[in-house]
Design the sequence.
């Protein structure tokens, strides 16, 4: 099976947002939301010694995706090709997965009321097309392929040219979107947009930490009570008035 | 215990009625729903963080349904049916079940009940030999469970609806998941005792069978529900003595009486009401009333259920089955349910509810059905040709001064006028 | 016979002749409704003037997606944000839907919807009336875009010479004139730059990246990836500057000083391409003499750039010769000396031997095209009213001077202008000094606007004609001679026009019929028109429409030229004219001379404006997808300046200019990426058009603050970087 990965060359990227527009048009992303975003670091430094880069952010299809375990309904899952997908039929829109993503790649679609994010254009891949952002990229800065195929472009860019992951000290979950840059762009991006530790909303925390143990406790206590009653009954024998 | 037995009145093995058939049906319907929903619900929570059923169980149940989506669909369908059935019981039976004295019998704990609970628990633990205080038709344990269920069922239903239909922002849905889970957990704790008592506990066997026959042996009633047994005996005595009078009709309000009038309303008043309903529909949902469009939706729903691929690719049906939008989440489709329910309520209020075939005196029942079917076929076909029927096109279209509506209406009257002569035998 | 083409015919011709490929068994995506399989129609984009190749996917008669056409020789399947969002303009609910006749006062916005027959009859009557009363020259035409050619024919046949588009006097006119003076040819569009093969790229004010022309970006990024050195001269830390090896935050208006100093370094150090200059150029000695004293140290005082940096960059540029692209820019009307600045850039290009060389400027390869035998156009009795070819001797008489026509309308000199026909142009947003434009409109007896959207100028029109968008109409083919491989690309309707809109060709031809000018429209269908144009190319109509574009062998380098390509340098001398005798004869500087710009007074900032990658001029702000990406602009201010004004990031301000003109409220963005003496904003926002429900009143309009211009004496082009503003805290209710 394949291990799909994307490489974005930040030296080439001019931040034109063609990827965002193509993606939004392809997937009916409502205005104000995005499956892939272009985030400028803005100029860093003192005039006139400035540096800047664009962070092309999207789902990283991580090796150890925290969103999958944050999803109570199993709507978010990882396929054998590494693509993390959302089954809209299962998504109930609880939003637990949104803060669970250290890269903020997820959003709640206000039209469908389901969570949505990049899936490497899985439907296009099935038709033999590349992801919409890759084909449209005006700067030819995006590369997509199978990281397990030594002949693929992404293999060459990751293992040959040393494309980097955007990780932080706290978050190392094996992202599969890599970044190239000859002018230190990945480091600048890491500085500005370091992934945050996965979180879940307070409702989910209460559920996980309090209510789930409480439910076990209640059921267990009841079961215990019944067991006692049962054995008491056995000891006493049946009442003579039972038919 | 044996001491008490000596003073027992002599019972014939007479059975006395405890449960109405509606209650028994509801009980077993509930039993099925809880079995189905708990089985699937436990398998629907899949993530390691929240899952409480083991992984093998999740996979097993998912396997039964083929896909997780099917399982969720089943869970929602059963849950919705449950809510609708409970709602119907609530609407039609509220005067029977939700009266104060009934509620008192079912959930209000009196001093005897509190004592009963205390002694019951102590006796279970072998710490007491006190006799149990007499109990009403439901004992304190049952009351306590009923109370829990009465409190939790609305929570389960509402949180379920929020999840199924995404009512509210993610934070609300996020809490709905938790509430759903917790409320079910509370009920399940009680349910375990309930099931144990009913199915395992030997003393309560008559209670179990009463849910099938509706009857309990008088001896069981005397022993377990003494206060109720006394009430039953009292009633029997009074009836025998002819003391019991039929309860006089309550001095309920005149409006109520008017609503329950057996006469039909004057047609002009009804027309005004219909007009106001139409206006309200435009104001509230932004579209007029209709009928055939709603039926078309139900048909689209059925076609999608049987042959989704066909429905999606069909030039006509694909207009109805669009990804991400349930076919039946449509005003006209829902309106039809309302029409049926409204008609039912109206007929019931006026005391006109009965099985009958409306027909002219000279036409046989079967012929009437066959002709009605044929007529329905024609009007359905015609309505789709005209893109509306007398409700959608003539009524709502007329209200918006659509030219098509008036052409249609004139055609309907003209055709009816011409056809009436030929078909008069059906009605005269 | 009815001259109208029915919608069904349109659809049929679209579906069958386009050779639309069917996507068999495509999985319906959430973006696409289930239903009939999709058709793909090849055409070219009109979200901007680059006209990239597109493939529009049509499902159930609706455009569901626009992607790049991989068969397009220039853009090769890539498409910018605007191109991807094209169908959001097609389905913009705010579009003009029916012809409208004004019933209220001008600007009031009260109209009566009328039929096309009524509209065209009315317009024909008014045009006939104006012709009789004031002569045909009294009607001026303001076109823009490829669809305007049918109207251009109509206006010439009607008898007026007065046609002007902002692409000359408000955009690239001085550049094309400057390069033509030097090399004998203008650059044209798309610019023939060999960016992918360049070893050094110099951008002077050009902000590629924020300014997106798809193929130019692709080649720019390719060049950078292959290791080209990048020098960016810009008062602002643009996207391009962030990629530069050297960023030169120059004092605005001093570019000629920098260019002269670069030439000084190159010539004094003998770094020029000597063989190339010897073979192809004249005037080197005069140039050498001219730049003798323009040392980096001199230029440093003017440009506020370190002399060492000027010297270092000059050497880096020279080291890469001849594979150097001195990007000529596009919107270059800045300071009124713009033709001379273009000259300086052209001369520098020549010194490096980059014209006609790999990695430099590509040569044009002619593409033959067929013509109908039209009757000769009537000779106007009076010459142009805008001064092109007269007061402004080097202004293009083909493109004209928009602001010159405004002037003539206002003053009635040299003769009165009484009618305007505006097609595809937005005179209130593209021409500076909007008060003058509005005053001119007030004097008109006839104002007609042909547009897609209810932009502000439609409020002032007597008649508004709703045109079909580029996805619903045929336009003349896009013939490009300035690419490495020249090509021809089609514009064909993808879907039938929505509402009661009509394609430009239909409007022009119907109007011609009513004016008795149908002899200039000797074709019945768009296909007939297209077939005639491609006649000499030896390609089939069917193939062209199926593929969208067909390219030919190019001869972009000097060594590949053939005799039929014409002279290499069609100047008077037949050589590259470093020293321009023509300018000398006209009484202007034969070699570029630096004149210091007026600096903003203390407490004022120079207003600079530019582009954003997701918007085109002022025409895409109402597009739902693009507005989602960028709903409004912000004003860039250096943190040091912000402190001085007591402003903070995110604050809302109103900009006031030296003449007391005020902008709508706009958000401050403090950034070290701009010189402290400048303010910058993206052009095209702050629109005042209630009909554009999404864009109306969002952000601020730079154009509303351009009340002062510096007119280029050679071309009449309006330099617009000469306005000063100060931010005032906004009082918002």
Sequence:
């Amino acid at each position: 099976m394949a291990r799909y990965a994307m490489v974005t060359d930040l030296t080439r990227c001019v931040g034109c947002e063609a990827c965002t527009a193509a993606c939004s048009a392809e997937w009916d992303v409502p205005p104000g939301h995005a499956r892939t975003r272009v985030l400028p670091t803005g100029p860093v430094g003192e005039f006139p010694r400035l540096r800047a880069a664009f962070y092309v952010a999207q789902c990283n299809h991580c090796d150890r995706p925290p969103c999958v375990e944050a999803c109570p309904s199993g709507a978010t899952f990882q396929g054998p090709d590494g693509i993390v997908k959302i089954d809209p039929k299962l998504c109930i829109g609880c939003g637990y997965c949104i803060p669970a993503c250290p890269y903020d790649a997820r959003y709640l679609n206000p039209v469908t009321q389901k969570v949505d994010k990049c899936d490497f254009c899985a439907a296009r891949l099935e038709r033999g097309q590349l992801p919409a952002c890759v084909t449209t990229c005006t700067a030819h800065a995006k590369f997509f392929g199978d990281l397990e195929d030594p002949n693929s472009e992404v293999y060459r860019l990751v293992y040959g040219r040393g494309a980097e992951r955007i990780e932080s000290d706290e978050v190392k979950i094996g992202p599969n979107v890599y970044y190239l840059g000859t002018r230190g762009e990945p480091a600048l991006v890491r500085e500005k947009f370091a992934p945050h530790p996965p979180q879940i909303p307070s409702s989910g925390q209460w559920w996980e930490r309090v209510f789930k143990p409480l439910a076990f406790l209640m059921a267990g206590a009841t079961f215990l009570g019944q067991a006692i009653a049962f054995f008491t009954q056995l000891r006493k024998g049946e009442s003579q008035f039972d038919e | 215990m044996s001491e008490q037995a000596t003073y027992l009145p002599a019972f014939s093995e007479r059975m006395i009625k405890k449960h109405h058939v509606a209650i028994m049906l509801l009980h077993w319907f509930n039993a099925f729903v809880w079995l189905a929903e708990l089985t699937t619900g436990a398998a629907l929570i899949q993530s390691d963080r929240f899952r409480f059923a083991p992984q093998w169980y999740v996979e097993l149940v998912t396997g039964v349904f083929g896909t997780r989506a099917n399982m969720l669909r089943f869970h929602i369908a059963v849950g919705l049916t449950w809510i609708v059935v409970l709602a119907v019981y609530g609407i039609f039976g509220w005067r029977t079940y939700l009266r104060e004295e009934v509620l008192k019998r079912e959930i209000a704990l009196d001093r005897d009940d509190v004592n009963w609970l205390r002694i019951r628990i102590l006796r279970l633990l072998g710490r007491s030999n006190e006799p149990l205080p007499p109990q009403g038709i439901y004992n304190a344990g049952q009351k306590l469970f009923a109370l829990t269920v009465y409190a939790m069922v609305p929570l389960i239903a509402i949180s379920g609806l929020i999840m199924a239909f995404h009512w509210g922002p993610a934070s609300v849905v996020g809490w709905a998941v938790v509430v759903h889970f917790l409320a079910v957990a509370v009920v399940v704790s009680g349910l375990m005792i309930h099931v144990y008592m009913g199915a395992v506990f030997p003393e309560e066997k008559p209670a179990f069978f009463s849910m099938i026959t509706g009857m309990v042996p008088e001896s069981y009633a005397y022993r377990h529900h003494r206060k109720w047994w006394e009430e039953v005996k009292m009633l029997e005595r009074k009836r025998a003595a002819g003391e019991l009078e039929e309860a006089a009709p309550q001095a309920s309000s005149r409006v109520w009486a008017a609503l329950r009038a057996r006469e039909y309303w004057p047609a002009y008043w009804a027309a005004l009401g219909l007009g106001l309903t139409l206006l309200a529909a435009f104001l509230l949902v932004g579209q007029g009333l209709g009928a055939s469009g709603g039926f078309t939706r139900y048909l689209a729903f059925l076609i999608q259920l049987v042959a989704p691929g066909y429905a999606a690719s069909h030039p006509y049906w694909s207009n109805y089955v669009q990804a991400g939008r349930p076919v039946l989440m449509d005003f006209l489709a829902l309106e039809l349910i309302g029409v049926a329910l409204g008609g039912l309520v109206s007929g019931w209020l006026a005391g006109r509810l009965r099985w009958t075939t409306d027909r002219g005196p000279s036409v046989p029942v079967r012929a009437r059905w066959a002709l009605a079917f044929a007529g329905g076929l024609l009007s359905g076909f015609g309505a789709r040709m005209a893109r509306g029927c007398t409700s959608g096109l003539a009524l709502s279209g007329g209200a918006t001064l659509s030219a098509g509506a008036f052409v249609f209406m004139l055609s309907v009257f003209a055709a009816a006028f011409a056809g009436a002569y030929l078909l008069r035998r059906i009605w005269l | 016979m009815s001259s109208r083409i029915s919608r069904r015919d349109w659809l049929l011709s679209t579906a069958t002749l386009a050779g639309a490929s069917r996507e068999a068994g495509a999985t319906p995506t959430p973006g696409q409704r289930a239903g009939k399989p999709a058709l793909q129609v090849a055409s070219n984009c009109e979200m901007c003037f680059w006209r990239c190749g597109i493939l529009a996917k049509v499902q159930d008669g609706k455009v569901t997606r626009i992607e790049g056409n991989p068969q397009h020789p220039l853009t090769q399947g890539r498409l910018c944000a605007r191109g991807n969002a094209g169908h959001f303009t097609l389905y913009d609910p705010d579009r003009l839907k029916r012809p409208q006749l004004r019933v209220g006062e001008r600007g009031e916005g009260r109209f009566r919807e009328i039929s096309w027959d009524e509209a065209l009859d009315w317009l024909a009557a008014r045009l006939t009336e104006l012709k009789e009363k004031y002569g045909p020259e009294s009607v001026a035409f303001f076109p823009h875009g490829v669809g305007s050619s049918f109207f251009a024919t109509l206006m010439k046949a009607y008898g007026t010479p007065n046609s002007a588009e902002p692409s000359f006097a408000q955009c690239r006119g001085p550049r094309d004139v400057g390069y033509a003076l030097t090399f004998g040819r203008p650059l044209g569009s798309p610019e023939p730059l060999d960016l992918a093969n360049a070893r050094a790229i110099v951008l002077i004010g050009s902000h590629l990246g924020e300014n997106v022309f798809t193929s130019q970006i692709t080649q720019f990024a390719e060049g950078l990836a292959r290791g080209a050195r990048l020098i960016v001269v810009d008062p602002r830390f643009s996207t391009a500057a962030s990629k530069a090896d050297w960023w030169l935050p120059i004092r605005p208006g001093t570019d000629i000083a920098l260019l002269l100093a670069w030439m000084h370094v190159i010539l004094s150090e003998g770094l020029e391409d000597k063989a190339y200059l010897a073979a192809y150029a004249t005037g080197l000695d005069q140039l050498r003499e001219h730049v003798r004293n323009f040392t980096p140290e001199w230029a440093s005082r003017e440009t506020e750039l370190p002399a060492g940096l000027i010297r270092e960059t000059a050497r880096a540029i020279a080291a890469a010769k001849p594979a150097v692209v001195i990007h000529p820019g596009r919107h270059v009307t800045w300071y009124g000396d713009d033709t001379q600045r273009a000259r300086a850039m052209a001369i520098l290009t020549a010194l490096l031997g980059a014209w006609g060389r790999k990695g430099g400027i590509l040569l044009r390869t002619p593409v033959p095209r067929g013509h109908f035998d039209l009757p000769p156009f009537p000779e106007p009795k009076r010459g142009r009213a805008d001064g092109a070819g007269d007061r402004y001797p080097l202004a293009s008489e083909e493109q004209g001077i928009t602001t010159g026509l405004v002037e003539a309308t206002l003053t009635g000199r040299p003769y009165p202008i009484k009618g305007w026909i505006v097609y595809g142009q937005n005179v209130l947003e593209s021409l500076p000094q909007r008060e003058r434009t509005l005053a001119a409109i007030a004097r008109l007896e006839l104002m007609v606007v042909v547009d897609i959207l209810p932009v502000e100028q439609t409020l002032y029109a007597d008649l508004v004609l709703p045109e079909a968008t580029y996805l619903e109409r045929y336009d003349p083919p896009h013939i490009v001679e300035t690419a490495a491989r020249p090509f021809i690309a089609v514009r064909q309707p993808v879907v039938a026009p929505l509402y009661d809109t009509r394609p430009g060709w239909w409007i022009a031809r119907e109007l011609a019929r009513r004016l008795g000018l149908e002899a200039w429209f000797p074709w019945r269908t768009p296909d007939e028109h297209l077939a005639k144009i491609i006649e000499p190319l030896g390609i089939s109509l069917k193939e062209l429409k199926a593929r969208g574009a067909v390219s030919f062998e190019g001869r972009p380098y000097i060594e590949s030229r053939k005799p039929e390509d014409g002279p290499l340098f069609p100047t008077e001398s037949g050589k590259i004219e470093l020293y321009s005798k023509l300018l000398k004869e006209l009484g202007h500087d034969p070699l570029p001379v630096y004149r210091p710009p007026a600096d903003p007074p203390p407490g004022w900032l120079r207003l600079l404006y530019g582009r954003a990658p997701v918007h085109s001029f002022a025409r895409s702000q109402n597009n739902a997808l693009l507005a989602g990406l960028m709903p409004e602009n912000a004003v860039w201010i250096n943190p040091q300046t912000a402190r001085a004004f007591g402003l903070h990031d995110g604050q809302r301000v109103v900009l006031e200019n030296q003449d007391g003109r005020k902008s709508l409220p706009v958000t401050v963005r403090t950034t070290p990426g701009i010189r402290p003496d400048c303010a910058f904003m993206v052009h095209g926002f702050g629109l005042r058009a209630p009909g554009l429900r999404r864009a109306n009143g969002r952000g601020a309009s730079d154009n509303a603050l351009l009340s002062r211009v510096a007119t280029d004496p050679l071309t009449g082009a309006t330099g617009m970087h000469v306005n000063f503003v100060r931010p005032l805290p906004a009082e918002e209710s």
In short: The mean pLDDT of chain A is 92.
